[in-house]
Design goal:
- The chain is built from 14 helices and 14 strands.
- The strands form three sheets. A six-stranded parallel β-sheet has the order 3-2-1-4-5-6, with helices on both faces. It has a six-stranded parallel β-sheet with strand order 11-10-9-12-13-14. The chain has a two-stranded parallel ribbon with strand order 7-8.
- It is elongated.
Length: about 450
Amino acid sequence: MTLGEIMNIGVIGLGFVGLSISSVLASKNYNVVGIDIDKQKCSDIRNGVLPLFEPDLENTLRIGLKKKLTISNNFSLIKNCDIIFVTVGTPQKSNGAIELSMIKKATTTIGQIIRKSKKNSIIFIKSTVVPGTTQNVILPILEKESGKKVNRDFGVISNPEFLQESNAIRDTKYPHAIVLGGKQSKYMKKAKMFFSKMHPNVPIVITNFQTAEMIKYANNSFLATKISFINQLSNICQNIPGTNIDDIAKIIGLDPRIGKLFLNAGPGYGGSCLPKDINALINFANKIGVNPILLNAVKNTNREQVSNIVSLMKKILGDITSKRITILGTAFKPNTDDIRDSKSIELIKKLLKNKAKIIIHDPKAIENTKKIFGEKILYTKSIADALNKSQCVIIMTHWKQYDTLNNNSIKHMNKKNIIDCRRVLVKKELDAKYYAIGIGKN
């Protein structure tokens, strides 16, 4: 494998991360084989049908498929790959720990296949795993199943990803940094050459396995901490007449020591990464004898946000039994259909326990929401239908469509109560009882 070669690349696991990497690499003219055990998913992807919504992914996938992207459930196709990215899921157990069964299966199969291969492949572990996993779990499996020796016959490198949902293609093409964890070897040199060629001028940090694994958890835990911090301030501001959390966030964000990102107060963080990763780090810290006081506070602050919304609603409506309540947005953030650990889903569950009648609208996440609630709630295709006869509307996700709400939009509500968790309507003169999370009412 030399720098000038167009290499064969395998990607194991075609979820959010794997699909993004496969599509981008293929669009750059690399020979890419994307592997997933789900036969139907593979068939759909080959036909350009995505299992998830991610801006620009469909277009990038189509370009890749026209070039050199093969999608298959046949793992043996990685036999000729110079590079193999492992992007399978590491979901959360009930106690917060990560579930390693998928990555164990994937690496077992990879080991069995490279046993028969003459390639000296580099295996990049992109799946999020707690420190020590690559060294103590993955390497022994690969050596046992392949009958080969790591750093002699093949390379293994921890290569955490930092993709944001709704920005995955941009983040794949233009990463802010590249982390390579493992032993200094010929494989590490080749890995550095590969990424230097693909991403000129992007910082490449070479470290050991454990540090690379910890970097991912540190990154996401800090982002979660910023969100819980601004949400804690938001709760304080709401009880100080005239105080505006957005002005506070804007000014402190101008301080280069703080930065403006992830200071948008709201109902709390969700999605596939932050909740899972902070829970896994708390679980891991406890196992090694460290009491993660700050991380627990971050988690608890996040958990309280939805309860605060319910309390505010009861203050406005009194008993919410049988009250018609509209939820605008069930995706955990705009420009995705992902509802994993979405605060909207948590809110709906709490409201259903209080026997409220729930009507929802979301531009992309309706089908995923139906998988959870079925016929327990009502679904609408238009914002107008969602608001019709409603007694309270809660804006949970900042989809741009919700910026257009005005007095005409809310005229058919039975009671014009608005709880705006994202403060999207704060500058509008509304003929309604308007409560903006993070802004103290005068």
